[in-house]
Amino acid sequence: MATKIIFFTVNGRPEQAEFPVDCPAQDIKDLFRSAAEAGPHDILKLYNPKGNIINISPSLEPNSTHSCYKLEVVAADCNSAELAGALGFDYLLYGEKVGKVGNKTNRLQGLEKKILIEAGETPAVVYEMKKQVDSFREKLESVEHLSWLGLFKDLSEGTHKPSPFYHKRTLHKTRKECEHVREKFLQMSSLEVSEEVRQYLKTPTFDNWQWEDAEIMVLLQVMYTDLDFIAAFNIEPEVLQQFLFEVYRRYNNIPFHNFKHCFCVTQMMYGLIWLTDLKSKMDSVDLLIMLTSAVCHDLDHTGYNNAYQINARTELALRYNDISPLENHHCAIAFEILEKTESNIFRNLSMNQYKRIREGIIKCILATDMTRHNDILNKFKSILTAFDFTNKDHRDVLMMILIKVSDISNEARPMEVAEPWLDCLLQEFYNQSDVEKLEGLPVTPFMDRDKVTKPSSQTGFIRFVLLPLFIELANLFPCLEQHIIDPVRKALDYYTEMEKALEREKQNRAQSENAAKIKEATVGTQSTADSLTDAAPEASKADAQ
């Protein structure tokens, strides 16, 4: 069986991992977890020699001792770590080779005896570790293909894979899926996220693809904490956790407008708040409005845009009289979540504060309807030269601009982060245009798979929508030039070149097809001439007879 060998360091200590090329991703993560001496709910990240986070998965590129990866625990349960340290043992009880399981058991027994002598009783953490070793042995004995990697993986657990075509009946997350993520999130919610990750979270270069849904909820919790919302608005941690879980639950399994998109928009908003030092320019209520609006801005999106809702006369279009049906629905779902006491992060605010926050969130989410794009941008341009942070109307327009920028900011991210998002968006677009054709509805031109290519979908959008919007925001905050405008210009160059390459390929294909037709016609003409030449003597001979 083919295997991969990965060289990496943990706290400066060299390690080596070997696993089959077809090894399940979760088993590989568990292998690295054991090497890092991490508990089952700590968050691990792997860095390449350039310092970029890379995915711990079967697609890991093999390396050498000269190009070691670096493994770090970026969020850990400090209490468990302190207890383990106080008891004088480590967590690396599993991560060597199959033949050493007996040694691990002996090690644990020896440690248990030592603790009994020193402490007088066996701590609960030791019983937990004994259970893990027993589970480990059982898996080795009963599941051959797992080898020695399956430490915490539940073998009865299925992997949720949404259908590539998102029918309405399969939109919503299953209860089992939600409960699994909820359990992981609650187990992780007390983890201390490293300062390095906290700083990384404030940058537009943040890579969402390396984080699972439960981890993403931990990062959203960090945002509320680091902006001082917990203390300023008396938000109880368990209420924030329930709010974030309900938000996760109400984002659907669709290609683009899903929970990860919610996180990306929120993370960009969070980054913009720090990059532009809005904490010193706007009060904390406005910042809370902007971050929460970003979290909720696409709740229960079905994967079909407003044009489809209106043309198909859906329930949403009828309910909201064809006026921003999706955005109105996102707002309604947000406040449906906030109406529940256990998930109302605003429940300790005064009536006036709540009224102001509700008004602000509605205003921000409705601003994400792209049919209002020009009106909002022109309004911002008109006040830009005399912009006043003490003027509420000016601040309201800025908040709408900021959520709009955050909502369509993927191209401001590194290409390896942004391009997969474009693939997801096109999949959602193509799904819609396919349904429009099946239902006999007007087909949205920029979604038609027969007319739109990957680069053509972006060049016009970047040139006429993204750049004009981003440039106006940078006129107010010049520091954003390097952070969001330069990357967007590079993206435009990238897709322009891709479009030219596709056009050249199309022309070459057309020339080849024409040449083949000409050749075929020439061969056909020659065959006819040859047939006539062969037939002439026969005809003369027949005439002579």
Automatic annotation (TrEMBL):
Pathway: Purine metabolism; 3',5'-cyclic GMP degradation; GMP from 3',5'-cyclic GMP: step 1/1. GO terms for biological process: signal transduction. SMART domains: HDc. The active site is at residue 257. Gene3D superfamilies: 3'5'-cyclic nucleotide phosphodiesterase, catalytic domain. It catalyses: 3',5'-cyclic GMP + H2O = GMP + H(+). Its EC number is 3.1.4.-. CDD domains: HDc (cd00077). Residues 504-545 are annotated as: Disordered. Zn(2+) 1 binds at residues 261, 297-298, 407. It holds the Pfam family PDEase_I. Its cofactor is a divalent metal cation. One of its GO terms (molecular function) is metal ion binding. InterPro entries: HD/PDEase_dom, PDEase, PDEase_catalytic_dom, PDEase_catalytic_dom_sf, PDEase_CS. Residues 178-502 form the PDEase domain. Belongs to the cyclic nucleotide phosphodiesterase family. PDE9 subfamily. This is Phosphodiesterase. The gene is LOC115026471.
